[in-house]
Amino acid sequence: MAKSETGAAANSGVFRKIVLSYTYVAVWIFLSFSVIVFNKYILDRGMYNWPYPVSLTMIHMAFSSGLAFLLVRVFKMVEPCAAMTKDLYFRSIVPIGLLFSLSLWFSNSAYIYLSVSFIQMLKALMPVAVYSLGVLFKKDIFNSSTMANMVMISIGVAIAAYGEARFNLWGVTLQLSAVCVEALRLVLIQILLNSRGISLNPITTLYYVAPACFLFLSVPWYLIEYPKLLDTSSFHFDFFTFGLNSMIAFLLNIAVFVLVGKTSALTMNVAGVVKDWLLIAFSWSVILDKVTSINLLGYGIAFIAVCYYNYAKLQAMKVKEQQKLQKVGDEEENLRLLDAKLERHEETLPPAHKSDA
């Protein structure tokens, strides 16, 4: 009876864990989906018609800076980084903030010129950019099999671009620039922070990075968008629309923290693939963006290559974990043998030597 109750409790615990994992994934997909569609709605000239991506990004950064400050300094729900110094901030956080601001600026600008579905297809190039820069900065080891995988992803995206009905060269340039800058930011995080044993969760990241992003974005905003906003006399700040948009963007960062913390980064990658397909379907059926068969063929090739890349990473992680466990096991075995040898040595000592010991 006790054994059956224990088994039932274990099964219940496993079931609860599975349900929670799927809940985290569903919440992250919903928030990520909502931010992308909401940004498209605000920036697209045929919808809300507010084509000011720098201004929108600055609103997000100001909102995130304020909330992160409250959570870290006022409510103390998250501890600031103890290792953060002024020198580290200017040498590491400021360059990362610059790249983050450029990535957000370029990616948000692309929504003015490209469809949601095509943007998601172009984002499939992110592993290619991250791996290539990782090899360049010697954070990854060149592997011909991995590089062939990267080439296959690139071919798939190129086919999707060839079949795009609403192809816009400037929009593609902006989105590819966003991918490259974001990849460089991720590699620099490894070089400037992770290599020093410093890790920041999304809230502390926003606490340190968002103010720097806001300041960097203020330069192109003042030069490019501020004069246009002055000429738009009919504009009034829509607190509900921009406030809700900023809140969802902030919650997305929290969801990333929870999802990776409660599951794994690989789970997030897989969930991202599901989200991309949902966005393509939504873009085609609701926004009525045209998705061609060549689009789907190209993205299908890239999708399979990305899935294989994630699978290869998972296998490499398993091998690395097994090697680590094997090393720990070997060390424990060596200690056990050493203890046994010392015990046998003590047994061979004369009684007088044992009493002295």
From TrEMBL:
<feature type="transmembrane region" description="Helical">
    <location>
        <begin position="169"/>
        <end position="193"/>
    </location>
</feature>
<dbReference type="GO" id="GO:0015297">
    <property type="term" value="F:antiporter activity"/>
</dbReference>
<keyword id="KW-1133">Transmembrane helix</keyword>
<feature type="transmembrane region" description="Helical">
    <location>
        <begin position="293"/>
        <end position="311"/>
    </location>
</feature>
<feature type="transmembrane region" description="Helical">
    <location>
        <begin position="21"/>
        <end position="42"/>
    </location>
</feature>
<feature type="transmembrane region" description="Helical">
    <location>
        <begin position="112"/>
        <end position="134"/>
    </location>
</feature>
<feature type="transmembrane region" description="Helical">
    <location>
        <begin position="239"/>
        <end position="259"/>
    </location>
</feature>
<protein>
    <recommendedName>
        <fullName>Sugar phosphate transporter domain-containing protein</fullName>
    </recommendedName>
</protein>
<keyword id="KW-0812">Transmembrane</keyword>
<keyword id="KW-0472">Membrane</keyword>
<dbReference type="InterPro" id="IPR050186">
    <property type="entry name" value="TPT_transporter"/>
</dbReference>
<dbReference type="InterPro" id="IPR004853">
    <property type="entry name" value="Sugar_P_trans_dom"/>
</dbReference>
<dbReference type="GO" id="GO:0016020">
    <property type="term" value="C:membrane"/>
</dbReference>
<feature type="domain" description="Sugar phosphate transporter">
    <location>
        <begin position="23"/>
        <end position="310"/>
    </location>
</feature>
<dbReference type="Pfam" id="PF03151">
    <property type="entry name" value="TPT"/>
</dbReference>
<feature type="transmembrane region" description="Helical">
    <location>
        <begin position="54"/>
        <end position="76"/>
    </location>
</feature>
<feature type="transmembrane region" description="Helical">
    <location>
        <begin position="146"/>
        <end position="163"/>
    </location>
</feature>
<feature type="transmembrane region" description="Helical">
    <location>
        <begin position="266"/>
        <end position="287"/>
    </location>
</feature>
<feature type="transmembrane region" description="Helical">
    <location>
        <begin position="205"/>
        <end position="224"/>
    </location>
</feature>
<dbReference type="GO" id="GO:0005794">
    <property type="term" value="C:Golgi apparatus"/>
</dbReference>
<feature type="transmembrane region" description="Helical">
    <location>
        <begin position="88"/>
        <end position="106"/>
    </location>
</feature>
<dbReference type="GO" id="GO:0055085">
    <property type="term" value="P:transmembrane transport"/>
</dbReference>
